[in-house]
Specification:
Oligomer: single chain
Helix content: 25-40%
Radius of gyration: 22 Å
Number of strands: 17
Strand content: 15-25%
Largest sheet: 6 strands, mixed
Shape: globular
Structural class: alpha/beta
């Protein structure tokens, strides 16, 4: 059913036909695709009825889901009844992914602003709206695809412009507007899930200059000469647990030796074993549960990973002058394991005396930030 979606007020027909959106034509993110805001659609969330004219439509696209919502500019928060979350297969074909995203968008009540805020993971050309996902294990079918044009075509009459931004930047803007980052002039925001998302925020995300890592994102840093996410990621932590459990179980004497060696990932052989270890090990949520039950190996996996993250971030947090480090993402739910190790690593490597804080709006911050991005965009009313 490529190109047609049942929305709140009926079926939206896609302009331009129903063929695959595989053309890498540039510049679609700001292209006009429809006649403006639809006036005839009704239904949807009762709480949003009667006040949708100025609401900002937003999308938060993740590797397993897409969330759609309307954000009220009066308070900057999502209208609760408008928030919907749908499954999304990041390994599907380009049309399947775009269909699923547009289907979630079309389910929102009509009458909102025609500019959409869209939080997307990278690598992505946010200015042009084109996917650059080659070799990253997700959304590979969108590499070179004009995502902006595909969504505008599917949402004809509901969208004139797609304002894309990095998902970690959206999270940071949301926490700055209405969460734990509020009141801090400079803040480092982290999202800990499959990998490490980050944003150095000074009112707006900072992506270049001597005070931030390359492109302003921490995942480009290294630990012991290897990519950061070889140490701090779902994959790396599961593999580390498998290695420690196989070598030492929960025996404290072996665990002490592991700490003395620096905690694990040690050379090319360990990297080659990561995938096998990931298959053999429990997921990170279960590792956290085992740590809470007293499993010393599980506790060491968290300690090592987030101590290493703190040490890697310390010089950059110092240069940037971060007054706080705000942490969200699925791993942040294990706060008692994450926070002490992260704060300890920052301090041990001479980082600033910044408060390490849990996100106040972990689920809605990307939606809030995407709406802020739309309001701040050139030409926004």
């Amino acid at each position: 059913m490529s190109g047609r979606f049942a929305g709140a007020g009926g079926v939206l027909g896609a302009a331009g036909g129903t063929g695959p959106d595989t053309s890498p034509a540039p510049g679609a993110a700001g292209r006009t695709a429809g006649a403006g805001v639809s006036e005839g659609a009704g239904g949807g969330a009762a709480a949003a009825a009667g006040r949708t004219a100025a609401l900002v439509p937003v999308l938060d696209v993740g590797g397993t889901h897409v969330t759609a919502a309307l954000v009220d500019p009066a308070d900057g928060l999502p209208v609760p009844a408008s928030v919907t979350r749908r499954e999304l297969g990041s390994h599907a074909g380009a049309d399947g992914i775009l269909d699923a995203i547009a289907e979630a968008a079309a389910g929102l009540p009509a009458g909102h602003l025609p500019r959409w805020g869209v939080a997307m993971p990278g690598p992505f050309d946010y200015a042009a709206g084109i996917g650059r996902f080659s070799g990253v294990g997700k959304f590979e079918s969108l590499s070179g695809v004009d995502v902006g044009a595909g969504l505008l075509r599917r949402l004809a009459g509901r969208a004139e412009r797609m304002c894309f931004l990095n998902d970690a930047d959206a999270f940071a803007l949301g926490e700055y507007r209405a969460g734990a980052a509020a009141g801090h002039e400079r803040v480092l925001c982290l999202t800990l899930g499959t990998g490490v998302g980050s944003s150095f925020l000074r009112g707006r995300p900072v992506h270049d200059g001597p005070d931030v890592p390359p492109e302003g994102h921490a995942h480009r840093l290294t630990v012991a000469g290897r990519p950061l996410e070889d140490t701090v990621s779902r994959r790396a932590m599961r593999a580390h647990y498998a290695r420690l459990a196989a070598a030492a179980g929960s025996r404290e004497d072996d665990l002490a030796g592991e700490r003395a060696r620096g905690g694990g990932a040690d050379g090319a052989d360990d990297l080659a074993d990561d995938r096998a270890g990931e298959r053999a090990a429990p997921d990170v949520r279960e590792i956290a549960a085992r740590a809470a039950r007293g499993d010393a190996v599980a506790a060491e996996v968290f300690r090592y990973a987030f101590d290493a993250l703190g040490r890697a971030l310390a010089p950059w947090a110092g240069r940037f002058g971060a007054g706080a480090v705000v942490v969200g993402g699925s791993m942040a739910r294990s706060w008692d394991l994450v926070a002490p190790a992260l704060a300890g690593g920052l301090a041990a490597a001479g980082g600033p005396a910044a408060a390490v804080l849990p996100a106040r709006r972990p689920d809605h911050a990307p939606l809030i930030g995407a709406a802020q991005w739309v309001r701040d965009a050139p030409g926004a009313a």
